[in-house]
Design goal:
Helix 3 runs parallel beside helix 4 (about 90-100) and helix 5 (about 125-135) runs parallel beside helix 6 (about 155-165). Strands 1, 4, 5, 6, 7, 10, 11, 12 and 13 form a nine-stranded parallel β-sheet that branches. The N and C termini lie close together (about 10 Å). This protein has helices spanning about 20-25, 40-55, 70-80, 90-100, 125-135, 155-165, 180-185, 195-200, 210-215; strands at about 1-5, 10, 15, 30-35, 60-65, 85-90, 105, 110-115, 120, 145, 170, 190-195, 220. Helices cover about 40% and strands about 20% of the residues. It is of the alpha/beta class. The chain has a single domain (about 1-215), classed as TIM Barrel, CATH 3.20.20.70.
Length: about 220
Amino acid sequence: MSHFVFMLTKEDRTVPDAAKIYADLARTPLRYIGFKDIGLPVAELVSLAAAMKRDGKKVMLEVVSTSREAEIRSVEAAREIGVNYLLGGRHAEEAVRILKGTDIQYFPFAGRTEGHPTRLVGTIDEIVEDAKHLASLPGVHGLDLLAYRFAGDVEQLAARVVQSVKVPVLAAGSIDGNERVQAMRRCGVWGFTVGSAVFDGDFLREPVPQQIENILQLEGVTA
């Protein structure tokens, strides 16, 4: 089984009406929900995260900022926002120092990432080696793998990363249909994120809450 994480994001940005959209999802079985560090001010994210946590949701913030300085600001903001999980980013040693003493679960990007929307570059061997290094760091609880943002053999990449580490692997980015969901599930990922594809109606041409319910009913998917 793989956990479904719904991201209130489109094209690697938190959508402007994230709070309104979330209000329609509060009573769904959805357990994990998140947003990016780009798109809305921190004050709005604090309020949004508080509402999600009151409803029993696990809140995720994914860092997609491209500079070290912006990434560090977002790691610090994760503490202020009060998220349960911090995803993404590349400066893991600095991030774990900032997060020390919190209950935040940290899943940095495995492999070298570039640009915005973020792409995963390098060879499979390079990404696997980086994944093993990150997974060995105290304070790293899992890995964020941009599997479908990789130009090579996606399933080989995901399967090798999962097999090479003992921490959960979250497949993030560009999962736009049941075929990709099932491919990641077969590779053994702990979870997968979907954002833009729901807003674009790639799974079903239905309102967001109905799409969420339908994804949760896919074989091998859990809240």
